[in-house]
Amino acid sequence: MSRLVMKFGGTSVGDVERIARVARIVAAARKPGQGLAVVVSAMAGETDRLVNLARAAGGEGGNGAPLPAREFDDEYDVIVSTGEQVTTGLLALALRRIGVPARSWQNWQAPIRSDAAHAKARLSSISEERLGPSIDQGVVAIVPGFQAITEDNRITTLGRGGSDTSAVALAAALKAERCDIYTDVDGVYTTDPRIVAKARRLEKISYEEMLEMASLGAKVLQTRSVELAFAHRVPVRVLSSFVEPGAPNPGTLVCGEDEIVEKQVVSGVAYSRDEAKVTLLGVEDHPGVAADIFGRLADANINVDMIVQSEARQEGRQNIVFTCPDRDAGRAAETIEAARGKIGVEEIHIRRDVAKVSVIGIGMKSQVGVARTMFAALAQKGINIEAIATSEIKISVLIDAAYTELAVRALHTAYELDAA
Amino acid sequence: MSRLVMKFGGTSVGDVERIARVARIVAAARKPGQGLAVVVSAMAGETDRLVNLARAAGGEGGNGAPLPAREFDDEYDVIVSTGEQVTTGLLALALRRIGVPARSWQNWQAPIRSDAAHAKARLSSISEERLGPSIDQGVVAIVPGFQAITEDNRITTLGRGGSDTSAVALAAALKAERCDIYTDVDGVYTTDPRIVAKARRLEKISYEEMLEMASLGAKVLQTRSVELAFAHRVPVRVLSSFVEPGAPNPGTLVCGEDEIVEKQVVSGVAYSRDEAKVTLLGVEDHPGVAADIFGRLADANINVDMIVQSEARQEGRQNIVFTCPDRDAGRAAETIEAARGKIGVEEIHIRRDVAKVSVIGIGMKSQVGVARTMFAALAQKGINIEAIATSEIKISVLIDAAYTELAVRALHTAYELDAA
After folding, report:
1. A420 and chain B: CB distance < 8 Å anywhere?
2. B61 touching A, CB under 8 A?
3. Architecture of domain A269-414
4. Could you count the other beta carbons within 10 Å of the beta carbon of residue B194?
5. Cβ contact B79–A58 (<8 Å)
6. Does A1 touch chain B (CB under 8 A)?
7. CA of B300: how far to CAs of A334, B304, B337, in Å?
């Protein structure tokens, strides 16, 4: 018996009609000798409704002071996790109605376990002891995504959007041949099709590339799920849940680099507008000052991305530029401000109207001149580069946010990604 | 440590404001040396919403043929049971917000078990192994009513309204000193206050009397929960959830007969309009005919109540009159009709505009003349009695439904139940 895991998000199961459609997609995917497990999200809107109830009872916005997280999050998980449970039952019924044997499996029934970090838990183990044999008998297993139970038998949720991770982890536990993630797009594109009309769907993309794409703002798959797929070597296919059941729906396969024969130098262009640039002018230039600054930022839980150091005009001083998520910029400045005397910083500036644009490709590893193409393409459009960061398979530049679309289009053309 | 179980129904937890109020009631009930467990229903309206979703997916009213019960009920339970789970989390948060340690306990966490009769399961065992010590440490345990899990670890529901039963069973398992059922009335009354303005709240009522009241249409407590309380000798108090938290709220105590010092001959007058009278004329009069008729009705799952046999005018024939719930009357007639030739029945009549009025009291056991008072009071108002049934603590009469209120008021006065 081989096994396949399928995953459907909140929009795909948004009402009973759509759930019936998902049932037909699952029915069409059945074939002899293959067991099926389906991971489902809560119906669209349902999680928000439950979150609001929980908040009104014990969080922000209700009467009285909000509870601290340690007194709020465990019961929040009890409340919010019911959303997916409802979908599991509904899909099981919809499948049975069209003659497909199916049953729901709640986390405690499998069990599917996580650590005890309520509201943002990480999966720790999935037992296939009960699930596996049932699937192999031809009964489709419906599993709620985004949740688990602790060793102590409390309910957890994985943080919003954790259903992709649930599906990949389940596929790994079941030793499934593949994990199919059904979503509202029909695959992974060379870039955002809303910006570049000539963006192309990729047939295959490597885990590393997908990781960069995911973490750089392409919202098709969650970063954590790609990491997990990479670690366990689970092939993941991203495909549309809105194609007629049974009709061609190739999607994009996320797989190991070795399975990609023709390696693109650049597979995709990603961008993120959720960036801020913090400039520290006149920082004392002595050993350990950078470690001090970035240590303080790390302690404040601020995710620093690009870092550029340069000499200042004044002797014995330097300038430091770094980027972080836009929402953290104020806190970053406060953190530095609070230690200003100790660190020795003359001026702190924040710039919020910046964007990060990146080109990604595993072919980069063995190719020279990739960066030159990028800088030339941007220069030709008169776009100024404010900072640069590179990895083995990625080059990112920070630019004025107003030029984001222009930059993405120019790079898409420069790397010959445009569809014919 | 003593223990107390409290139960709040769907109206009492209808929204987050009301749940906050329930939290204040629970907080006011806390006292040193006493552990608390609280059983909650789904928020009013929530169960209906979930039932409708389940039906749309696999039951009546969706697309395609409805699933048979054996393929529908297990997943129906998965869906519908989420309603109470949400309330457990919300109440735990509301309690913590006012400084009361609390946590939710789902059935699988305790565990609380039932048989496998999905959608109408009966509780089989409640483990106090984990619940008990937590309660004794002063952490209020919030438990979802109306549901359980099977030996096979599937989710069940107890059928609608089963939360009272959950509460009483939990009280028995926890060896609680009492089970307090908070509801939208402030106790058990001598009769329906909507009919008799002078109806009085009873301070105490025996299990047997309450059983008769419950099964005769007084909807304060479910029959099954009273049976269970009786069997396990759990004192049950019915009281209002709309009294200011901490204010006097004596309610009615349902307890053993031996705890009631002054036994009333008649404690209450109950009535039921959900009755139909089926008359079979010219039934062949030979041994076994009654067994045949009522055997067939029992096989058709029709709950026959009063039975009156009388000689017919014709030699060798008799008339049989029985009552059953109004909704079953058509089916009862069909069942007899189908076997008409075999049984030998000349005519079948159904009368639906009848009502059953009953007087109930444990004092009846040792008192003569109770029936005479009843018949005299009804005769005085010109009310004709169509059938009579008695038990040790109850006398019921079947009358024209139009006289229901008149009869109830007359009996309430005749037995000196009117408030001063």
Report:
1. no
2. no
3. 2-Layer Sandwich (3.30)
4. 9
5. no
6. no
7. 77, 11, 13
CB contact under 8 A, B79 and A67: no
A191 touching chain B per CB within 8 A: no
* Closest residue, chain B, to A64 (C-alpha): B97
B108: nearest CA partner in chain A: A108
Query: Do B115 and B73 touch, CB atoms closer than 8 A?
Result: no
Query: CA–CA separation, B337 vs B393, rounded Å?
Result: 35
Residue among A19, A74, A104 minimizing CB distance to B78: A104
CB contacts of B74 in chain A (<8 Å) are 103
Band (pLDDT 50/70/90 cuts) for residue A60 is: confident
Neighbour-count burial of B56, counting CB atoms closer than 10 A to its CB (0-12 exposed, 13-18 middle, 19+ buried): buried
Q: Does A401 touch chain B (CB under 8 A)?
A: no
Q: In what order do the strands lie in the sheet with A178-183?
A: A102-104, A140-144, A34-40, A2-8, A178-183, A236-240, A252-255, A204-206
Each residue's pLDDT, cut to its tens digit, for chain B (420 residues) gives 899 999 999 999 999 999 999 999 999 999 999 999 999 999 999 999 999 999 999 987 666 789 999 999 999 999 999 999 999 999 999 999 999 999 999 999 999 999 999 999 999 999 999 999 999 999 999 999 999 999 999 999 997 558 999 999 999 999 999 999 999 889 999 999 999 999 999 999 999 999 988 776 667 888 889 999 999 999 999 999 988 888 899 999 999 999 988 888 899 999 999 999 999 999 988 888 888 999 999 999 898 989 988 887 778 888 999 999 999 999 999 999 998 888 889 999 999 999 999 999 998 888 888 999 999 999 999 999 999 988 889 999 999 999 999 999 999 999 999 987
Is A144 part of the contact surface with chain B (CB cutoff 8 Å)?
Answer: no
- Backbone torsions φ then ψ of A291, nearest 5 degrees: -60, -40
Tell me whether residue B152 is exposed, middle or buried, using C-beta atoms within 10 angstroms of its C-beta: 0 to 12, 13 to 18, 19 or more. Answer: exposed
Reference A201, options A149, A237, A157, A241; nearest CA is: A237
CATH of A2-183, one of 3.40.1160.10, 3.30.1490.20, 3.40.50.1820, 3.40.190.10: 3.40.1160.10
Q: Are A46 and B53 in contact (CB under 8 A)?
A: no
In angstroms, the separation between the Cα of residue A74 and the nearest Cα of chain B is: 9
Please check whether residue B289 touches A, CB under 8 A. no
Domain ranges of chain A: 2-183, 269-414
- Flag whether residue A89 sits within 8 Å of chain B, measured between CB atoms: yes
CA distance A123 to A106: 15
pLDDT band at A411 (very low <50, low <70, confident <90, very high): very high
Query: How big is the A-B interface in CB pairs under 8 Å?
Result: 135
pLDDT at B312: 76
3 state SS of A239: strand
Tens of pLDDT, residues A165-185: 999 999 999 999 999 999 988
Residue B291 makes CB contacts below 8 A (sequence gap 6+) with none
In terms of residues, how long is chain A? 420
Beta carbons of A115 and A124 less than 8 angstroms apart? yes
Contacts of B62 in chain A (CB under 8 A): 16, 20, 97
B16-54 pLDDT per residue, tens:
999 999 999 999 999 999 999 999 999 999 999 999 999
